[in-house]
Every structure is written in structure tokens, then in C-alpha cells.
Specification:
Radius of gyration: 14 Å
Strand order of the largest sheet: 6-5-3-2-7
Structural class: alpha+beta
Largest sheet: 5 strands, mixed
Number of helices: 5
CATH topology: Trna Endonuclease, Chain: A, domain 1
Number of domains: 1
CATH architecture: 3-Layer(aba) Sandwich
Number of strands: 7
CATH class: Alpha Beta
Distance between the termini: 26 Å
Mean pLDDT: 84
Order of helices and strands: HHEEEHEHEEHE
Oligomer: single chain
Length: 137
């Protein structure tokens, strides 16, 4: 995963279904920007909500004009970040050319329905449509 998640980039490029997006995210994770102290760089929407910014590769991060290091982030780490920071969405490849905002609750439900073994009880709601939102940095 050191080079990112090309399968997720492909799903975004072809505007794949929410299920295929969640499957690619669950399978390959994303890259996240980290500071020298290894803390994760969060984004802020125009509405002022904090979000986790994820990238499918270094090229999409370069479009964001970021200057931090990139680190591989699997879905369990995404859930840990959510628990610590309270972010409710992960915005993937915010600077384009194809982007998605994924509610972390939808990711949790997807993982619950697809993983074997003990899992927490969560809502059985169907994932919402994913939309790109303008991001402020």
C-alpha cells in the first residue's frame, strides 16, 4: 500500500457504486497526510466541519498542494482516528480529479456486514450517496 490504493482511484474515476467504493476502501485503505510528530492532518469543510483527508496516491495529494509526509492508513486506523478526533467523514482525493466524501458510519456498517468474527452492533441502514464537497484548507 505504500503507493496508495489504485483500485479505489479506479472506483472514483468511473463513479462506481457506494458498495464498490466501500469495498475498495476496506481492502486497500488510503494515504493520509501526517505531521513530523505523526499526528494526522485533518481538513475543514466550508461549513466548518473537520474531516479526515484521504488520498489514493501521491499524485492526488500533490494536487492538494500539501507539504506533509504521507502514511498508509487502513480502515481500522481510520476508525481509530474517528474515535480520537470525532471526524464523521473521510474525504478522498478532495482536489480531484474524482473525489468522494464517505460517512465513517457507512464504513463501519460495511465492515460489520462483511467481516467475520465478533463485531459491534451497528445500524443496518443502507449507505447514503457520496458527494464531493468543496474543501477549505
Amino acid at each position: 500500500m505504500s503507493i496508495g490504493n489504485p483500485a479505489l482511484a479506479d472506483v472514483l474515476a468511473r463513479h462506481g457504486s457506494p458498495h464498490s467504493l466501500l469495498a475498495a476502501l476496506a481492502d486497500g485503505g488510503v494515504l493520509v497526510a501526517v505531521r513530523p510528530d505523526r499526528s494526522v492532518v485533518l481538513g475543514t469543510t466550508q461549513a466548518g466541519d473537520r474531516v479526515l483527508l484521504g488520498y489514493t496516491g501521491s499524485g492526488t495529494y500533490a494536487r492538494h498542494r500539501g507539504s506533509h509526509s504521507l502514511s498508509a492508513c487502513d480502515v481500522d486506523t481510520i476508525l481509530d482516528i474517528q474515535r480520537v478526533t470525532g471526524v464523521r467523514e473521510i474525504v478522498i482525493d478532495a482536489a480531484g480529479p474524482a473525489a468522494a466524501a464517505v460517512p465513517i458510519d457507512d464504513l463501519q456498517r460495511f465492515l460489520t456486514s462483511t467481516r467475520s468474527g465478533p463485531t459491534p452492533v451497528m445500524s443496518g441502514a443502507v449507505p447514503a450517496a457520496y458527494a464531493t464537497g468543496a474543501m477549505a484548507t
